[in-house]
Amino acid sequence: MSVEAMTITGSGDTETQRIARGLRLRDVALIHQLVEQYQYRLVRYLIYFTGRRDHVEDLVQETWLRVLERGNRYDSRLRFEPWLFAIARHLAIDHLRRNRDLSLDTGSSPDSDPPSEPTAKNDPSPFEIAARTEDALRVSGSFNLLLPIYREVLLLRFQEELSLQEIAKIVEAPVSTVSSRIYRGLEVLRSQFKGTTHAE
Amino acid sequence: MQNDFHRRARLLIDQAHVVGISPEEESWLNIHTINCTECRDYAEITERVIQGLGSFSFEVDPGLTERVQKALTRSAEAVATSHVVRQKFFSGAVISLLLTLVGSLASWEAAALVAAQIHISPWTWKTGVVLWSLPSLCVALVLISGWPYLAGNSYEKREVA
What we know:
A: mainly alpha; Rna Polymerase Sigma Factor, Chain: A; B: mainly alpha
């Protein structure tokens, strides 16, 4: 499970309190530091969610500008990453809707919706390009076909190691829905993985 | 019965990765997978899938961080400037209102004194003072009421170079 990444500074403030204070004061130096610290993870999250590389850089910049603009809304009792990813998620959804690329979910039960969408394979997906091991390559094909809501929970749980409660806050869904999405996402990837293994 | 064991084992395999399982459940699962090839394969594939997810490495434009930081600096400076402008505007509006009120009071007293000496009717001099003070009072109130709308959105989208 995730570990609270809080360090005690010399002043007695925790890391999140230091971040909250800096955001309220619009401390540009602090925000620059946050950009350096979280940039890769933010880029990765947006690629996972949108399933594409184009426009990710614009979304990254929009996200940080939104962080600067709404810094006074950050709650220091919570970790910074969930708040950052929540902002990025809203912007990504707006972007996908504007470009009519959205197929997040149908709003019905996660147990009944198909977790993936049939998409004609053209250019390699960003996941296929980013795969560094054979297993990653096996997973990448079906991973790209998963709906964004399944991809993001798999990332947030297994890469970002966020708790189910934190993920639920980001995706604005109950913890039970988050669990279901993770299990269903794994189920799809497992079946595709077995399929490619047997094919070899 | 056997199917229930397999079903339970697979559920525990998934739960172990997602929410964690108790030591007793882990122990049961270990014993089951030692004897069950199918569930052992299930566990292995699940593990490999999750490991595979962790083996994506995305390339990030090295200049992106710098461009974002520059955009943030510009945005923060714009907000700071706009904040100073708004503060000055508000201060000016408040001073304008105070001067109007003080000036109106002084005008009222002076007009009353002069009107008494040159025999102007009270209605006339009072109307005169009010009409004299009204424009500046209106301007001051309009300035103060319009101050919140000066905030606007200072966080303009900056094009990524």
